[in-house]
């Protein structure tokens, strides 16, 4: 009389659990970096409107605005992962992030007048990890 086997053996179940653990160990950090990059992109989207206002102000006045209100924007710009978007005296936009990226992490957008057009350059600021930046903002 032969006895039929039903279900999986303990070894088979342990192998499946080990495989799932290895995949999770690889996937979770990759997903965390992906979400941080998405939050950094949110800051760039919020700064896009300010870039337009700064460019228009410079075209009209021949000088950089030194505040968001001078550029015709609200005095405070923020978002889900963005503490603030600030405007410096040389037209530099500074995006400061909250804990969803890294509390106090900074990305700067620096304008320059290049042969009749305004060129914007990304500069990694304090506590901003290079791997979180969009490809057009990376130095390498």
What is the count of DSSP helices, taking H or I runs of 4+ residues?
Answer: 1
- What is the CA-based Rg, rounded? 24 Å
Number of strands: 4
In what order do the strands lie side by side in the largest sheet? 1-2-3-4
**Overall pLDDT metric:** 89
Q: Uncertain spans, ≥5 residues at pLDDT below 50?
A: none
Overall shape: it is rod-shaped
In the CATH hierarchy, the architecture is 2-Layer Sandwich
The topology string of helices and strands comes to HEEEE
Distance between the termini: 71 Å
Global structural class: alpha+beta
Fraction in helix: 25-40%
Proportion in β-strands: 15-25%
The largest β sheet comes out as: 4 strands, antiparallel
CATH superfamily, called what? Glycoprotein, Type 4 Pilin
Task: Give the SSE map.
Elements: H1 10-61, E1 82-87, E2 93-97, E3 106-114, E4 117-124
Antiparallel strand pairs: 1-2, 2-3, 3-4
Folded structure, characterized:
By secondary structure, the protein is α+β, with helices and mostly antiparallel strands. It has a single domain, classed as Glycoprotein, Type 4 Pilin, CATH 3.30.700.10. 37% of the residues lie in helices and 20% in strands. It contains one helix and four strands. It has one helix spanning 10-61, and strands at 82-87, 93-97, 106-114, 117-124. A four-stranded antiparallel sheet has the order 1-2-3-4, covered by helices on one side. Strand 3 and strand 4 form a beta hairpin. The longest helix has 52 residues, at 10-61. It is rod-shaped. The N and C termini lie far apart (71 Å). The model has no long low-confidence stretch (mean pLDDT 89).
